[in-house]
Every structure is written in structure tokens, then in C-alpha cells.
Design a protein that fits this description.
Rossmann fold, alpha/beta, binds arginine, Argininosuccinate synthetase, chain A, domain 2
Amino acid sequence: MADRVVLASSGGLETSVGIGWLRDATGKDVVALAVDVGQGDDLDVVRQRALDCGAVESLVVDAKDEFADEYVVPALRANALHQKRYPLVSALSRPLIAKHLALTAKQLGADSVAHGCTGVGNDQVRFAAAVAAIAPDLRTLAPVRDPGLHRDRAIASAQERGLPVPHVESSHHSVDQNLWGRSVQSASLEDPWSAPAEALYASTHDPAVPQQADEVTITFDRGVPVALDGQRFSVLRLVQELDAVAGKHGVGRIDVVEDRLTGTKSREVYEAPAAIALITAHEELESLTLERDVLRYKRGVEAEWAGLVYDGLWFGGLKRGLDAFLEHTQQHVSGDVRLRLQGGRATVTGRRSEQSLYDFDLATSEAGDEPDRSPARGFTELWSLPGRITARRDAAN
Ligand code: ARG
């Protein structure tokens, strides 16, 4: 059925209005697909809205565990923070949504898929690049970007057609949410000097309001978080549980100016309590269990990995190669990390591992317990040798 197109549907204004535009522009029947990546929306409502807006079929896929196990876990292995700050919340879900779009299109015999991204940001590129890498024969259409469906026009169009779209302000305000966090763009943030209004935040409490600290212990097994305070959970459940407690302390509020892959800068606000708490804990466990040179090299790989994922290259060769390296480094990253959550911060207060490389006897400076220091003298001499040779050469010139 090449006369069908599968549209990624979020239930938002643009994708809802986009259904009619897509049908009119292509003459194809529109199948809506909502992928549940933990956005917390009522997907029955989203499903019905797509039908009411003219979709011939409206599907919902529960991809929450897949997102947790196959997208969040690799991001955590990579301690992934784009430009050192942004835990890739939206960037992480796009390849998974694209994958389900492509699979559904193949199942239905459709020749194209579509998304509701505008022509401004990164997501249009991420969808297209992921679909191309999974199903090279599919076309990716952008019914909001290509006819230039601005928000105000979309609102007018919805009113004209009597479409049941959600109420939105005419001001530019866009939220994207999933298990790993929440991304907020808003007209009120466009001036990088204006402080984010408290009302923009939804999953974190104001960290300035004093509260008793909470302490949590996170258990990792080969880099994967498996238990919280000794209770075993799936990754999905663990992230949800931790999100609630870390969010209560305002952990993971991020206010950044970032470089879009399209070359412009953009100011955004994110909330990612569990992501920030888990990355903090995981990095700490790596400090205890990884060899110095692995750790140093890995930190560079992490930045590269985050950049590739941000740039929509999830299915690309370099990203997959780096995944193999990152996975290999996790063999011994097992143990517990204790975090204190308070005042917007997740602070490590303890770490332990049966795989630890920390040697108490070698680390101690207690008198009487001293290890044999005699190799240190020769090592220090040799270590200083290149500097001495260079200094002599420089003094002679
Ligand atoms: N700038 C972020 C990214 O490119 C978030 C994009 C989606 N944000 C939004 N508020 N809809 O990954």
C-alpha cells in the first residue's frame, strides 16, 4: 500500500494539524503512530485525537522498556552529556521513534513516513537520518516544515477545520518529554539573559526551598543500574523511582545555550533528575573500578559519542564502533554508590565495589602501616628525566 504514509504522532498541535496537510499534499491515507517513550501523556487520548483529525488508523507502541534498556543504558555507559551539560533527552528518543516508524511503514507496505518537526531544530535531521539508515527506500516527509506551517497558522487551521487539538498559547512554547527527562523551549527563554520562570519546570521542585536531604544507594551491575536502596528494579522502574526522589530536591535542572547541529545557537531548559543522579553515580563507580588510562581515554570517547547522538548519527558506523568500546569498559563497573540529594545537587558520599582497584594498603599514609616506598625514589628520578634533559638543552640556547 504505497498510498499510505506513517506519521509520528505526539498529539500536539503540529502533528494533529499535520495529518490533514499531509493527506491533502500527498493524496495518501495517513496512519498515525504514537511511540510511548515514557512521556507520561495519556496515549489513548493521543490515539483518538489522531483519528478525529483524519488519520485512517492510529497505533500506539509501548517502547518504554526498549527505550530504557537500549537507549538510556548506552547513554549512561557513555555518561552522555552534550557540551558537558545536556543529557540528550530528546536526541535519545528520536532514533527509537524513527525505528518504529520505519518498521510500521514496512509492515503496512507504505513508501513514506513523516514527522511534525519544524525547520528550525535538530529533530528534523535526526528523524530523517535514522529512517534513511534503517530503511533506505523510505521517504521522510515533513508536513509542518515544508509548507511552513507556523504555529499561528496551525492554530488558525485547526480552528477553521474544527479539529480537537490541545489548547496552546500562540507564543512559542514547546515541551518534549520522555523517561530520561524534559526539554523546554519557550519565547520567554529566547533572551539568554532572562531567568527561567519557575512555572517552566514540571518534574523538579525549586532547589532553593529548604528540605531535609534524602540519601539513596544505587547498585550497578556492569554499568547497568539494577537496584535502588537494595531493591531490584528494571531500568525503566529504577529511572522512574529515582526521578521522583531526585526531582523533589531540584536535581537536574539545566539551563543552557547549546549549538544545534544546524549551526545556530539555542537557549533551552531541561529537567533530568534521574539522568543527572545516575550519571553522577556511574561516573564515580568508574573512578573506583577503571584503570587510569581507560578512564582518561573513555572521557574523550564519551564526548564524541554524545556529539554523534546529538547530531542524529545513532545508527552510524562510528557511534556503533564506540558502543562496542564503551560496552567493553563496563565489565568491572559493578558496585554501589551512595548519593545525598539536596538543594539541586546529587553528591556522592560513598562508593564500594568488589571490583575496586582502590588498594587501602597502598593508599594509606598511616605511620606503621607504610608500604615499601623504596621503588618511589627511582621512579621519581626517571619520571623527571625528560624534563631535566629539555631544561639543559633550553639553558644552552
Ligand atoms: N535542543 C534539544 C535537542 O535538540 C531539544 C529539542 C526538543 N525540544 C523541545 N522543547 N521540543 O535535543
